[in-house]
């Protein structure tokens, strides 16, 4: 196999590349002088990155059958829809095989001004088939400070000469970084090279520090042995895995999920948490969008069965590090409620650290062997043993031993058994509880530990964005005019998704999480309605203003303002509510109202507006009750209520009003669904009154 020992020839960038301001850069970027025509199959790893119109804009290198390595400046700002990888081509005007793009991952520390960390990964939507003309190149493992190298690509042949049709190559000589800096002020992370005949490439370009990227006439020479190994390619080698496992039967793992591309290709596993949310690895969702990803639940075969659901939100852990895979967890909200059945069930989250030597089950559709690029059709599972972090670190060498954190969990299994490419995000379960999410390891079943995100370490944050949206349980039917400030926020298809409260003739308050990934033109505010099916007055939304400090991961500052397109006309059934001026104390009687689910098991909002009488509790009491379960954080801008079991809020009431003595004291934010004996948590309106008034003019 070819080896990319020192120079990663990214290719010839012929378009405007990022925010590089040097005139010399623009004058010299994207060309080669004194090169030669390449021979057939001479550079089988060479890739031509092209636009959807088939225009070549950059080069790249095949590093396995799903990934192409390129420069971040080539892919920054591009989308999967307008990027194509052509492999096996010798000429630009014909030949080769085109692969559409599943996702683009730019180095998380890429700097468009200096081009530092100028590397990216392009995942193809389909497997690359190897032939004599198409082969991967191995990544270099050592820094090389001298010797020859070969650069290849389709860059311009000169300052006033266009792109060649024939693939070019150039024999170059590597020089030391010290020599490179002395010549041209090059950054330490970048390798430099020049022609052994004495042709110093892009010497004019190097005069500026902004050109410290060693983009030599269009070729980028990156020290891949250091830089790339710590970006996403833990991902490229390790995202995966079931080796030496057993076939699962229909219904064995009802929480198992398969994340797929829109054309149905499996990319990662996941675990169903409830009717709205699936948990997976942050690395699985890094670079993906709700429009290019779907999730299938209730299937034990990739080829058939299950329920294919669109995504509404993707929330990656805010401290996820693509370089080290720390905090490798994400939660995904589906676009429609899942119907629970024998084939689809949520899994309980682990609330404690599993002990060493505990047995656990891991399931997934990852490759059954590293050399086989195909995923198994049948869901696989394997029994593994949990090992200590101390043992786990000892069994890895640098730098991987340093990536075993307190928030990770490791398992061990015999050689020939373990996880492999494609299982990332899949569940590790012990005692019917989810304790780990497959993150990384050494592929595939080679005797090294497998590494997981430890659920108990992330439970207080990773699930905050999942369980907590909604709710009225154990309430009573409201009567006409009882809650004239109540609002139902609906989609254009009249599907209720959140509540709200009228505070002015153009203004409605709701929860910030209700409006994430929604557009005003797709939302209608229904006011003056008693039933969700009919009645009331429809007002189109004109503007959304979500609190600038809203954190969708922790749900802090979970408040938003909706401005209607037209003035709201008040009457006995439609009237604004006054905002509370002071903090509401503990043990105060309050009323919550809304159309949320009346029970978690019935995925349909109530038809008639519901309300329930509750009592506030102190924030200290609220924090204590959650700490017993999940150590969740209650801030001073939250307000909590608590009532007997089977009374409270449930999915669909988010953003709805909480009122005391005729004043709006809270907006439904989150809680444990649905009325299971834990507090419900609200946005404390008094904490945000100044912000609301500054925007709306309402006091």
UniProtKB/TrEMBL annotation:
Keyword annotations from UniProtKB, A to Z: Digestion, Disulfide bond, Hydrolase, Protease, Secreted, Serine protease, Zymogen
Any one cellular-component term (Gene Ontology): extracellular region
Biological process terms in GO annotation: digestion; protein processing
Signal peptide feature range: none
Matches recorded under InterPro entries: Peptidase_S1 (IPR050430), Peptidase_S1_PA (IPR009003), Peptidase_S1_PA_chymotrypsin (IPR043504), Peptidase_S1A (IPR001314), Trypsin_dom (IPR001254), TRYPSIN_HIS (IPR018114), TRYPSIN_SER (IPR033116)
Gene3D superfamilies cross-referenced by the UniProt entry: Trypsin-like serine proteases
Record GO terms (molecular function): serine-type endopeptidase activity
The keyword Protease is assigned to this record: yes
Domain Peptidase S1: start-end pairs: 32-244, 242-474, 472-697
Primary residence: secreted
Compartments where found: Secreted, Extracellular space
Protein origin, superkingdom: Eukaryota
Family classification: Belongs to the peptidase S1 family. CLIP subfamily.
Record protein name field: Peptidase S1 domain-containing protein
Native organism taxonomy: Eukaryota, Metazoa, Ecdysozoa, Arthropoda, Hexapoda
């Amino acid at each position: 196999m070819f080896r990319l020992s020192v120079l990663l020839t990214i290719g010839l960038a012929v378009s405007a590349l990022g925010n590089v301001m040097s005139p010399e850069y623009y004058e010299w970027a994207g060309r080669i002088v004194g090169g030669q025509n390449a021979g057939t199959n001479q550079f089988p790893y060479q890739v031509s990155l092209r636009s959807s119109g088939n225009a070549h804009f950059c080069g790249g290198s095949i590093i396995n059958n799903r990934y192409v390595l390129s420069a971040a400046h080539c892919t920054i700002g591009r989308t999967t829809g307008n990027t194509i990888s052509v492999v096996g081509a010798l000429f630009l005007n014909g030949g080769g095989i085109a692969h559409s793009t599943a996702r683009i991952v730019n180095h998380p520390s890429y700097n468009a001004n200096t081009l530092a960390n100028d590397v990216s990964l392009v995942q193809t939507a389909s497997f690359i088939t190897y032939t004599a003309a198409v082969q991967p190149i191995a990544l270099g493992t050592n820094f090389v400070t001298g010797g020859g190298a070969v650069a290849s690509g389709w860059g311009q042949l000169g300052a006033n000469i266009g792109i060649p049709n024939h693939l070019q190559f150039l024999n170059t000589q590597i020089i030391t970084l010290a020599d490179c800096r002395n010549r041209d002020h090059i950054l330490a992370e970048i390798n430099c090279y020049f022609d052994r005949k004495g042709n110093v490439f892009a010497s004019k370009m190097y005069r500026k520090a902004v050109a410290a990227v060693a983009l030599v006439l269009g070729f980028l020479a990156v020290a891949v042995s250091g830089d790339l190994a710590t970006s996403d390619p833990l991902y490229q080698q390790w995202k995966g895995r079931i080796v030496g496992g057993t076939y699962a039967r229909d219904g064995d793992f009802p929480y198992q999920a398969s994340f797929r591309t829109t054309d149905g290709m499996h990319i990662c596993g996941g675990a169903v948490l409830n009717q709205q949310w699936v948990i997976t690895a942050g690395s699985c969702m890094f670079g993906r969008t709700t429009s290019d990803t779907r999730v299938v639940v209730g299937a034990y075969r990739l080829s058939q069965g299950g329920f294919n659901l669109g995504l509404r939100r993707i929330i990656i852990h805010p401290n996820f590090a693509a370089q080290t895979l720390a905090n490798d967890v994400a939660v995904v909200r589906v676009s429609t409620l899942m119907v629970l059945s024998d084939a689809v069930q949520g899994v309980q989250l682990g609330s404690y650290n599993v002990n060493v030597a505990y047995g656990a089950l891991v399931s997934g559709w990852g490759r059954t062997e590293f050399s086989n690029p195909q995923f198994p059709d049948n869901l696989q599972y394997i029994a593994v043993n949990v090992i200590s972090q101390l043992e786990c670190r000892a069994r890895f060498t640098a730098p991987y031993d340093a990536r075993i954190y307190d928030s990770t969990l490791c398992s061990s299994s015999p050689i020939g058994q373990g996880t492999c490419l494609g299982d990332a995000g899949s569940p590790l379960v012990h005692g019917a509880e989810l304790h780990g999410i497959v993150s990384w390891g050494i592929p595939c079943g080679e005797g090294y530990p497998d590494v997981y995100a430890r659920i108990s370490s992330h439970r207080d944050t990773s699930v905050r964005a999942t369980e907590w949206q909604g709710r009225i349980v154990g309430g009573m039917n409201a009567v006409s005019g009882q809650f004239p400030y109540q609002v139902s926020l609906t989609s254009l298809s009249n599907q209720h998704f959140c509540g709200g409260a009228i505070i002015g003739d153009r203004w409605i308050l709701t929860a910030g999480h209700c409006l994430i990934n929604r557009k005003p033109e797709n939302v209608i505010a229904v006011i003056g309605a008693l039933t969700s099916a009919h009645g009331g007055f429809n007002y189109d939304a004109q503007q959304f203003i979500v609190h600038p400090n809203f954190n969708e991961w922790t749900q802090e500052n979970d408040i938003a303002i909706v401005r209607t397109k037209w003035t709201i006309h008040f009457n006995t059934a439609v009237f604004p509510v006054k905002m509370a001026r002071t903090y509401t104390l503990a043990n105060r009687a309050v009323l919550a109202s809304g159309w949320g689910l009346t029970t978690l098991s019935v995925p349909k909002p109530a038809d008639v507006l519901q309300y329930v009488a509750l009592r506030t509790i102190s924030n200290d009491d609220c924090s204590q009750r959650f700490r017993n379960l999940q150590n969740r954080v209650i801030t001073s801008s939250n307000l909590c209520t608590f009532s007997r079991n089977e009374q409270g809020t449930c999915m669909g009431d988010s953003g709805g009003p909480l009122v005391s003595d005729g004043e709006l004291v809270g907006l439904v934010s989150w809680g444990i669904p649905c009325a299971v004996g834990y507090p419900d948590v609200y946005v404390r309106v008094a904490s945000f009154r100044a912000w609301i008034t500054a925007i709306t003019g309402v006091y």
